[in-house]
Amino acid sequence: MSALSLAVRDSNTMLRRNLLHARRYPSLTLNLLLTPIVLLLLFVYVFGDVMSAGIGGGGADRSEYIAYLVPGILLMTIGGTLVGTAVSVSNDMTEGIIARFRTMAIHRGSVLIGHVIGSALQAVISVVVVGAVGVAIGFRSTDATVLEWIAAFGLLTLFALAFTWIAVGMGMVSPSAEAASNNALPLVFLPLISSAFVPVDAMPGWFQPIAEYQPFTPAIETLRGLLLGTEIGNNWWITIVWCLGLAVLGYFWSKSLFNRDPK
């Protein structure tokens, strides 16, 4: 077999392995999926009228706030699934299976590729589930064209792949599953200090740079523009730069950790 065929075959095997693990142990995935759904329902039905009146400066309109909130919750869903990725990789590193893989005649990169593709697929499926909940409670995107829907899906997929590489690196550098979970928590908190719930210009002046100069805010604004027809501005290319930069960083970081000789 050629080197490319070997890499594809072994990566496919590792992908199936990770998907089987996710199917056999669904509790972690379900727990992480529950968080964005609870936040979506909480902010719509408990805070929706107040938040919509505050953002719009007029009367309370929960439907307008649903439209504003759902794109941010979708990207927050991706951030939440990264904890499971880091924990899964850490378990592989600490339980000895990686040491076993090192002695086998398999493509070395296939272990990482299997984790990344499997985790990204789970993230996209989670986004679809949360999006379905959003539609069920009133989210509509009637102005988006087919091309805009495709672009939105591509944005979510690229975002998931980029951050999954970072989560893989976090899992590999962690000495235990608990440490991996803690290391990945910033990826869950970042959406909370972005424009997911309120516009950046509604935040205190000293806090606005923190919310603006991070990867989630431009991605959320780009997704809102694609789905709702709001102004995107330069957020689209900032999002792409963030995603490509994080993917490259996560790839080389994870690769260097994986190729490091075990102590």
Automatic annotation (TrEMBL):
It comes from the Bacteria. Keywords: Antibiotic resistance, Cell membrane, Membrane, Transmembrane, Transmembrane helix, Transport. It holds the Pfam family ABC2_membrane. It is a multi-pass membrane protein. InterPro entries: ABC2_TM, ABC2_TM_bact-type, ABC_2_transport, Nod_factor_ABC_transporter. Residues 27-261 form the ABC transmembrane type-2 domain. The chain crosses the membrane at residues 25-45, 65-90, 111-137, 149-173, 185-207, 236-254. It is found in: Cell membrane; Membrane. Belongs to the ABC-2 integral membrane protein family. This is Transport permease protein. It comes from Streptomyces maoxianensis.
